[in-house]
């Protein structure tokens, strides 16, 4: 096992409290406010009467599997509230293959348990999104103490109304649409801004409304390209020189939504476009002769400093995670429901996706504002 750095006691020296040994890791795609959340956990623990040792696993579950960790000191958590990314590094360790031995025949789950026990950890604090939560729940089932925090710009985690990273990404995607607005107005073109979000439309929906998009295409509401064109032509008739379309990276046409998984896979084998936005652009161009441009802000949406909302939100969630540990309450994700910070049992979270309901009031209100969903 690699062991760098020195141990730190966050409590007053001389106190005869039991030492708590906490492992921490960030897994999956990064996002803003991961550092703020970890700082929240550690500050809460260090301000308590308990002594704590924090072990940071490098690059997510990989660090736990291969025993790559660093003992963290107070210094590590100083000045990181505003820092994007994650001080621990992250990687994707797909849940699908978690039970498949690695190239050297190592049983990953057993290796994680072994390293947890070797370090005599009291608990693991795991920050992640959907896949991360499936593995976290598996580790709970395997008998490890786990507390999790919901991170992702996609906001698709079940059991919480909001994930941290989401609001920061909404800000960035909105900025992108704002910038496109001025150039679209000058040129009188149709502009598509492709927004991240994986299989859900939360980010596109929110950034689309905030940026004043005329059309919003999200996976939960399959689109008909003719309806999209109808909206563009309606705007033309009203004398609007341009149209802005916010397209979720997972948006899907009504025709494609009807395909079986196998048929869809087959179609994608010979798919000539880099992403759905380019397909929409090509169809509009072909059917209307209009000039269409596509902008993809991509990973910019996960980058940079967390917005103030996320700093506060992640700090609050982190603090509650710290409280859970102090209460010896494990097997929970700290979530946010109806404006309250809540403890959600991990088994209720793992494996479920929180999607936008086409009947949600935000969708209905957007429609009342004149936004088309191409449906
Ligand atoms: O889950 C966050 C996210 O940014 C999604 O919105 C996107 O589909 C995916 O990650 C991109 O993953 P990667 O960083 O592995 O390319």
Note down, in words, how this protein is organized:
With 375 residues, the protein is α/β, with parallel strands linked by helices. The protein has two domains: 20-164 and 306-349, Rossmann fold; 168-302, 3-Layer(aba) Sandwich (Rossmann fold), CATH 3.40.50.460. Helix content is 38%, strand content 17%. The protein contains 13 helices and twelve strands. The protein has an eight-stranded mixed sheet, sandwiched between helices. A four-stranded parallel sheet has the order 8-9-7-10, with helices on both faces. Helix 1 crosses helix 11 and helix 5 crosses helix 6. It is elongated, with a radius of gyration of 23 Å. Residues 29, 129, 152-154, 196-198, 249, 302 line the site of 6-O-phosphono-beta-D-fructofuranose.
Top keywords for this entry?
single chain; 375 residues; alpha/beta; Rossmann fold; 2 domains; eight-stranded mixed beta sheet; four-stranded parallel beta sheet; 13 helices; elongated; disordered N terminus; binds 6-O-phosphono-beta-D-fructofuranose
């Amino acid at each position: 096992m690699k062991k760098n750095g020195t141990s730190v006691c966050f409590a007053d020296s001389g106190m005869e409290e039991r030492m708590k040994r906490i492992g921490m890791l960030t897994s999956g795609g990064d996002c803003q406010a991961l550092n703020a959340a970890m700082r929240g956990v550690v500050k809460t623990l260090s301000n308590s009467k308990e002594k704590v040792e924090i072990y940071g696993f490098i690059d997510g579950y990989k660090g736990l599997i291969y025993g790559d960790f660093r003992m963290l000191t107070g210094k590590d958590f100083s000045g990181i509230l505003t820092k994007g990314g994650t001080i621990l590094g992250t990687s994707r360790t797909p849940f699908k293959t978690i039970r498949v031995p690695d190239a050297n025949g190592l049983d990953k789950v057993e290796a994680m348990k072994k390293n947890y026990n070797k370090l005599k950890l009291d608990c693991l604090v795991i920050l992640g999104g959907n896949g991360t939560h499936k593995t976290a729940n598996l580790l709970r089932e395997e008998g490890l103490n786990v507390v999790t925090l919901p991170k992702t710009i996609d906001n698709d985690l079940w059991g919480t109304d909001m994930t941290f990273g989401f609001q920061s990404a909404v800000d960035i995607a909105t900025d992108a649409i704002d910038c496109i607005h001025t150039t679209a107005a000058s040129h009188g073109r149709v502009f598509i801004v492709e927004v991240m979000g994986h299989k859900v439309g939360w980010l596109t929906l929110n950034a689309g409304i905030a940026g004043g998009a005329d059309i919003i295409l999200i996976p939960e509401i399959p689109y008909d390209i003719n309806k999209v064109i109808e909206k563009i032509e309606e705007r033309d008739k009203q004398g609007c020189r341009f149209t802005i379309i916010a397209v979720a990276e997972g948006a899907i046409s009504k025709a494609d939504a009807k395909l079986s998984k196998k048929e869809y896979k087959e179609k994608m084998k010979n798919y000539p476009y880099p992403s759905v936005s380019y397909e929409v652009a090509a169809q509009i161009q072909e059917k209307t002769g209009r000039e269409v441009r596509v902008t993809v802000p991509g990973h910019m949406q996960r980058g940079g400093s967390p917005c103030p909302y996320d700093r506060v939100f992640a700090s609050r969630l982190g603090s509650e995670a710290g409280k859970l540990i102090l209460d010896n309450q494990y097997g929970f994700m700290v979530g946010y429901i109806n404006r309250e910070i809540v403890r959600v049992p991990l088994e209720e979270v793992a494996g479920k996706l929180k999607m936008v309901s086409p009947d949600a009031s935000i969708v209905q209100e957007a429609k009342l504002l004149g936004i088309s969903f191409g449906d």
